[in-house]
Write a structure and sequence with these properties.
There is one protein chain. By secondary structure, the chain is an alpha+beta fold. The chain folds into three domains: 3-73, Arc Repressor Mutant, subunit A; 78-160, no CATH class; 188-265, no CATH class. Helices cover 42% and strands 19% of the residues. It has eleven helices and twelve strands. A four-stranded mixed β-sheet has the order 4-5-7-6. Strands 1-3-2 form a three-stranded antiparallel β-sheet, covered by helices on one side. Strands 10-12-11 form a three-stranded mixed β-sheet, with helices on one face. β11 (254-256) and β12 form a beta hairpin. α6 (162-171) runs antiparallel to α8 and α10 packs antiparallel against α11.
């Protein structure tokens, strides 16, 4: 069966219409208007094209169409294209990839990511899109930022910057399972002035008390400059309570009253 036969006349007309207009994103109703077909005919058309791997369903009523039919007739847009399309569709004012995908991209971690973690201000929860796994983490838009943009397949993929990624690993450790490893990532960069300047800014802007106490202790132990350490200490009130340096381990170990830390690593 040749490509024309596999697509069918209606499929060929639809793809020609989309490609002639440069449309790589289509919605339910587009084919009805363009081809003068019924809602049921459109549904069958989209189902057939999706099943054949020619178009990609991002979410209900939203599809990606290849600008040019790829060899073999199957389209395979990257997770970044799917993510960017979805975020625009739901009206996210901002988003950034974080977690293991980003840790891996900066060579902080060598684990193979099984899903993509995304901070955003619209969606929350785990979703499977085009057979790809995503975990959307909804946060206040004021907590977005400190990013690095990379151009991938004609979209701008927005990653947490390296300092933000290390901060995320300490602040959001329960979600990413990234402590105590993240402390080592931080210790290795205490002499990097550019990194530390942004990391300190992020901590003072976005860090909670527990994060500041853990970061302050770690930096002081790593021999970081007193200026950086003192700025963190000034944000903290004296406390008689203690939190564990490694929340995953038993609460046993010596204590540091300056930072209110149980050194249980």
């Amino acid at each position: 069966m040749n490509r024309g036969e596999s697509l069918g006349s209606m499929g060929i007309k639809f793809l020609s219409w989309a490609q002639n207009r440069g449309k790589t994103v289509v919605r339910s109703g587009d084919a009805q208007a363009a081809l003068k077909i019924s809602k049921m005919q459109e549904a069958k058309l989209f189902y057939s094209l999706k099943k054949s791997g020619i178009i990609t369903r991002v979410m209900r009523g939203l599809y990606l169409v290849p600008a040019v039919l790829p060899p073999g007739g199957k389209a395979s847009p990257s997770q970044y294209v799917i993510l960017d399309t979805l975020m625009k569709e739901v009206g996210a004012t901002g988003y950034q990839v974080t977690g293991l995908v980003v840790f891996n991209s900066y060579a902080l971690d060598t684990q193979i990511p099984v899903r993509m973690d995304v901070y955003n201000d619209r969606l929350s929860g785990e979703k499977k899109l085009a057979d790809l796994n995503f975990r959307f983490i909804k946060i206040d838009k004021r907590r977005l930022g400190y990013t690095k943009d990379c151009r991938i397949e004609d979209v701008t993929a927005r990653f947490s910057s390296l300092p933000r990624a290390v901060f995320d690993a300490i602040y959001d450790y329960e979600r990413f399972g990234s402590l105590p490893t993240a402390y080592q990532w931080l210790k290795e960069r205490v002499t990097d002035r550019k990194f530390m300047a942004e990391f300190l800014e992020i901590c003072l802007k976005l860090g909670n008390v527990s994060t500041l106490r853990r970061v302050g202790y770690t930096l002081e132990e790593a021999g970081c400059t007193t200026g950086v350490v003192s700025r963190i200490l000034k944000r903290l009130k004296k406390t008689s309570g203690f939190i564990p340096l490694d929340p995953s381990r038993p609460l046993r170990g010596r204590t540091n009253s300056k930072w209110g830390i149980i050194i249980n690593d």
